[in-house]
What does this fold into?
Amino acid sequence: MTSKLKSTSLSAESTETEILCIGTELLLGNILNSNAKWISEELALLGIPHYKQTVIGDNESRLKKAILESALKCRVLITTGGLGPTQDDITIQTIAKAFNAELEERDGVWLDIKNKLSKKANIISQRNRKQAFLPRSAEIIPNPLGTAPGIIWSPKNNFTIIALPGVPSEMHAMWKQTTASWLRKNLDLHGIFVSKNLKFVGISESNLADKVSDLIELKNPTVAPYANLGEVKLRITAKGKSDKEAEKLITPVVAKIRDRTGKLFYGSNQDSLASIVLDLLKENNETIAVAESCTGGQLSAEFTSISGASNNFIGGVIAYSNKTKEDLLGIPKTLLEKYGAVSPQTVVAMAQGIQKALKSNWAIAISGVAGPEGGTKDKPVGSVHIAVTNLQSHKTSLENFGEHLSRPNIQRLSVIRSLDLIRLMLLERR
Amino acid sequence: MTSKLKSTSLSAESTETEILCIGTELLLGNILNSNAKWISEELALLGIPHYKQTVIGDNESRLKKAILESALKCRVLITTGGLGPTQDDITIQTIAKAFNAELEERDGVWLDIKNKLSKKANIISQRNRKQAFLPRSAEIIPNPLGTAPGIIWSPKNNFTIIALPGVPSEMHAMWKQTTASWLRKNLDLHGIFVSKNLKFVGISESNLADKVSDLIELKNPTVAPYANLGEVKLRITAKGKSDKEAEKLITPVVAKIRDRTGKLFYGSNQDSLASIVLDLLKENNETIAVAESCTGGQLSAEFTSISGASNNFIGGVIAYSNKTKEDLLGIPKTLLEKYGAVSPQTVVAMAQGIQKALKSNWAIAISGVAGPEGGTKDKPVGSVHIAVTNLQSHKTSLENFGEHLSRPNIQRLSVIRSLDLIRLMLLERR
It folds into this structure.
């Protein structure tokens, strides 16, 4: 699956867009800037070039400066935030001041706000009347979910400012209802972007880049690598006159990459390692169970985050103490005493124990030292044993992630490696 | 516990800082800008004023322009991203070009990189050698987790650029180890900020704000509410000449808030609901086990994310299928057939089953419909049953989170409500 998106015109200047998110809570780090991410994705889908995002607090002089800077450089400035009824909401007022324009109470807006407020509360605050005052020549963006209207306003030639509220649900609704179609109609958009993500495990970003270095030099499609903890992604983006033309450019590059990377490639776009493992199990209608020690539920959570996982994932045991390993997985006390909880023998017994208890086709077991305490000379923090078993055989793996890694990272990498181990076994079996 | 932080000087210009996040993936909306949020919080804790954040793609001319613009306005520019080994990682090179400086291979850096790489892979990519080339006079920020070193470099008077990698874990470690102390030592910070977060569960942000509306009007300390999924936080920040003076301002406000909120308050600062439950269990040296259905491991993961959890959390079962509920929890088939998997009877049997199997003092069980599929008229998506049992008694709770909620949100809220239920039982028992 590829995502289709309209592309940039040849004259970038006529469509270039910037995002300006307004709110002191962003500068204090109180909230993640999910609005910038959301709008970025929407702009990419529309094929509108966008090279800069800015965050400014609720401060008039700084905000005015940022708006005027953008007005010199881009075709459209999209702002979020500062449309509320309180004193620190100053976006509309500041936009107007920046271009020496007057605000006027626009017909029907205050009535609409009063109607909306009366459905929620008995007392209507006069504060909200402020939201009806907008620049005279601005087009109003109706807000289907809240009181604050947005505006689309061109205070000068070839520059339009689109002001949206900061509440994500309201902003999304106003984008879909009004903003996107305005952009499509008023910007000079040509061509189509098609983009595809390929995902890899078991290789570093630089080693993957070495394998495809000639493709990274390509101009259309472009190929760009991104690293995550334990995983790497290649994003391939093509520009064409049509979907078909763009996809035609992508297909041979994807084929080349897959040819060079073999089983290091595990999936595309929305796939996760867990979803791919579930897909492979589905092929033969097989089930899987897990026994987790140091990952303490994270491997199970990875499977069960996927809707419909219950068709193949039947459950598991969090065996966080030796006693639990004995009681629920039937591991002999003697084995635990002889080899210890973090050992290939124990992890195989855990996998076989849960497989037997739940009569699953496959089982994964993980036991290790996630730290920061509990490391020894023989078994330092970061040593993790993994076992995967099916009805015929089993495989084990000892990972040494290193003592410097944090507990969450050791837990996360253990989950990734265990999913990759079973993925490779399922692929081999094909 | 309160965190101590140095405060802003009176001459803001001497400390003003900007954040510049570099990466085309941010402009494409592929990832949330968690680095900007994280650094913002750290700057606020240090009391360093910060009025602007910018995001730029992996594009030399735009990046150079952004760097030079900041150099005119602020004392410190903190960048993240673009320190990797691939062609599109251009931060160090562009910073150097912006100030017409040469890069030179710095002693020992390539050796250190090779050592790190040899632990992970057999083949060492020559690409990584690029990471050893840094501006001559730059101070190196060691990277304890990855290959990319950062730099602290003052290319001109009263302007320092701090370049950090984009990988969050590496950036955090380098901030804590090197960057924060450099900022503390080199910026002209006066006064002390002391900040304390109080955490609440079982009340909405606006209802909590109503309870403390008079305190929200205070100037020193300030009191600000923040909402998270299922939880609310009040951040109290005081400014004083010393830690002691600032803490003296905070103490009576905290007392007032706790007096008005009672058991709705659950903890401070780094506390989580799971850590508080573990602390309460520790008081009587008790153990807990869990049986999870629709949360599929997330409750266990919440406990085991805490180092030392194994003293009280002994394990659990992910009973994702009815068969698992029968096999591992000993729930009679007849009970499951009569009441269904999502019922108070089943969830109590699950809790009692795991408690019996693991001989724990306490047990939590969760069973519900996390969606998006699987809802019925009687049991729509978002209905979740929770049971908490100890050796004497049990409590159950039926949550109706609503069909509009996403699967991850229903799973998360189920975990929060189950932890709050046992927390209240543990408090009552005191």
Q: What stands out?
A: The CA atoms of residues 28 and 99 of chain A lie 29 Å apart. Chain A is about 40% helix and 25% strand. Chain A touches chain B through 90 residues (CB under 8 Å).
